[in-house]
Amino acid sequence: MKKILALILLGILLIASVYYAVTYYVPYSEGVRSGELIKFSKKGILFKTYEGEISQGISGAQIFKFSVEGSKKDIIKNLEKYNGRYVKVTYIERFGTFFWLGDTKYFVTKVEEDSSPHFSKLRDQKDE
E strands of 1-128, at which residues? Predict the structure, then answer.
């Protein structure tokens, strides 16, 4: 009886480990988005996660929500610095998420400041 119980527990542990490995290490998609960084915050009660939002339209109708892993200190520092500015973020989308990593399936892997396309005509006219 103890042998059967041990095999069942080992099977459950193996299935949980495979699920975690696939969800965490295998990206569902990768991409780049840009927009105005309108929100970046650290939130949570027991597990603090970093969450942000990018407005991708003039009226703010298209909002891209993302998370950042706590170990990515340079990305967190840059996002705090670029708040309110136009940014370009590189991200991976996972199959799912875990409550200690973040609220969304989108995790930022790189961030850089970008120029807004809304003001490119003004900039081009200024250069002439």
Answer: 29-43, 49-55, 63-68, 86-93, 106-113
